[in-house]
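Run log, item B.
One chain of 221 residues. Sequence copied directly from the ordering sheet:
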Amino acid sequence: MIQLLFPLIFAEMALIVIFVFKTPLRKLVIMGLDRVKRGRAPLIVKTVGGTLFVLMMSTVYNLTAIQKRRIDDGELNPTDQVLLAGHLLEASLMGFSLFLAFMIDRLHHYIRELRMRRKSMEAAKKQNQGFEDGKNAGAKEIKALEEEMTALKVKISQLESELEVKTKEASSAEANAIALKKQSEDFLMEYDRLLEDNQNLQSQLQSLDRRLSRSDSKKYT
């Protein structure tokens, strides 16, 4: 049993040393432990650990039995001394092995949690960076919209001024048109009057011509 416990303890110590230093080998070991903890492997590991714990308790019981015989007899014979030393060594190695196994499990758990926390933190940082970039872009867009709004307000003011000027020009043109229309109506009325006077004068001339022609005809007769 002791021949198996020493290599087991050395292997566990090597795993702990690998966990302590950040090397590519640690990543491989963590990946291996991740696979081991899937499926039925944890049950097997717990069974082995439980068996080792039962063996350690059995060894401790044997130790207490030998110690009880020493108390009863006053001293131990050489065989009991050898058994006591062997059981003490086995119990110590088993306890140390279980302790190292527990440390490996906890280290693996903490390293995996730390890695997950780092990934979450990096994702949060990227999200925060994206939010900040979006916020800056939004601020720039808002500033550009404000500048565009200011330019539009200036343009609207210019258009209102131009519209006011055009309205005044249109009102003036309309007034001129009304005046010209009234003047043309006066001209038409004057033309009608003149035309009527002309017709009257022509009728008078014709009547005078007829009178003259009649007087001339009377003279010759």
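Observations after the first pass:
- Residues 78-220 form the longest helix (143 residues).
- The two ends are 187 Å apart (CA to CA).
Flagged for discussion on Thursday.
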